[in-house]
C-alpha cells in the first residue's frame, strides 16, 4: 500500500514539474528576456538538450528551418521547456527502473558467484 502512495505522489510530482516548467516557459516567452530564463532552462536540462539534438535539429534539417532561435515566440518556448521537462521525467523513470532491476537481480548474482581460489 505504501508503494502505491509513493508512485501516485511521484506521478503527481512529475505532472506538476512538467506543467510548472511549461507555464514558466509561457510566461518567460510572453514577457521577453528576464533574469529567470537561466533558471527555467536549468530546470529543463538535460531533457532540453536531448530534445534539441534528437528531435528539433533533424527536423530543421529535413524541413530547411533556417530561421533564428526566437521565431516561435512564447508558445514555442513553453513547448520546448515543457517537452524538455517531460524528457527529464522519462530519463529519471528509466534510471529508477534500471536500479530496481539491478536490485532485484543482485541476490541471484551473489548466490551464483563462486569464490576464486
From TrEMBL:
Give the domain of life: Bacteria
Alphabetized, the UniProt keywords read:
Membrane, Transmembrane, Transmembrane helix
Q: Which residue ranges does UniProt annotate as crossing the membrane?
A: 12-30, 77-102
Q: What name does this protein carry?
A: Integral membrane protein
Amino acid at each position: 500500500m505504501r508503494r502505491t502512495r509513493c508512485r501516485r505522489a511521484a506521478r503527481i510530482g512529475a505532472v506538476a514539474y512538467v506543467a510548472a516548467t511549461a507555464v514558466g516557459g509561457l510566461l518567460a516567452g510572453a514577457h521577453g528576456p528576464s533574469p529567470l530564463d537561466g533558471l527555467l532552462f536549468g530546470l529543463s536540462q538535460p531533457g532540453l538538450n536531448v530534445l534539441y539534438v534528437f528531435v528539433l535539429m533533424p527536423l530543421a534539417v529535413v524541413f530547411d528551418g533556417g530561421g533564428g532561435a526566437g521565431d516561435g515566440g512564447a508558445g514555442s518556448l513553453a513547448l520546448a521547456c515543457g517537452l524538455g521537462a517531460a524528457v527529464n521525467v522519462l530519463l529519471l523513470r528509466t534510471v529508477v527502473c534500471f536500479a530496481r532491476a539491478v536490485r532485484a537481480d543482485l541476490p541471484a548474482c551473489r548466490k551464483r558467484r563462486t569464490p576464486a581460489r
